[in-house]
Amino acid sequence: MAGTRSQTIDALKGIAILIVMVGHVLSWNHMEDGYLYDAIKVLQMPLFMIVSGYLCGIGRRAGSLKDYWKILGRRGLSYLVPFFFWIILKHPLHPISGIRETLFQLDKGLWFLMTLFLLNLMVYTAQLAGARAGTHKIPVFWMVYLGLAAFVVLETLLGWEFLSPGLTRLYLPFYLAGYLAGEYREKVSAIPERRKALACIPAVCGLIYLVAAFDLLDVGSLAGLLRQTAASFLGCYGVVYLTSRFRDGKAKGFLAWLGGYTLEIYVLHFHFATLLNRGKTYVLYSPEGVLFVLASFAVMSAVTAVIIAVTKKIKLLDFLMYGKF
Predict the structure, then answer these.
(1) DSSP tag of 279
(2) How many CA atoms lie within 13 A of 239 on its CB side?
(3) CB contact at 8 A, 88 and 99
(4) pTM for this model (two decimals)
(5) Cα(95)–Cα(109) distance, rounded to whole angstroms?
(6) How many angstroms separate the Cα of 107 from the Cα of each of 53, 166, 244?
(7) What is the pLDDT of residue 4?
């Protein structure tokens, strides 16, 4: 990824949301399989987290308490307003109980937004602590950050459910990897292009092997979790590198444009994934199944695009639904 925000970053977000959309068409229509869907699952959210971490790494630092609250305030409005708004929208008669239930089981709502906010909170808290440590900035940053990470792991070991710490633990490595790539982007850019290209080949081959050889959705054991994490990192590296090599043009421009609407698409699209389903079960690897997936994706995308176009014309809805202000 480039040293500054470029078309590549937004194109990666565009690719990530397309992967998410395809995955939801498959899952909501009960068409998951052990290959394509596994590859989608290990790529979609880790890729988002890596890109989000990278943007944090190249972004503004929390060098003072004022900066800290300003940055977190903006992140809170962007992530938490739509998170809570959609809970209330889904539970209009019992909003408080809906919020309470979701806070203890985030995957009942837009978990990605809360988890991303928590990952941001960890980094900016560590940055603030480091900034106040003066010459010991780096060791203090890591002491605080690793302490917070250890607390998240402890929460999962103790079975705590508030804010679903298991999700934060699961995606923390990807967010941190992206953050470090952004923090040390000059060193990353200095790596010879040939070496990056050569690394892409075993990364893609490794992902293909893991998808073909194992059930990557089975993380009931440490080995399963490590396999899934490895597949995610390998796949994400391949996508990031190949996207960085795309020439700037109409195709990459379209992906970048799409990447500018990831949050809007994310909160809306899955509601329309089953519009064409009339209770019939489709086999994915069949002409009928492929046509159904393509048609469902097209209809879902069209409805989502219309709603986004209409709602973004109303500032209040733009803020409540998508956290844009």
Answers:
(1) S
(2) 27
(3) yes
(4) 0.94
(5) 13
(6) 21, 11, 32
(7) 43
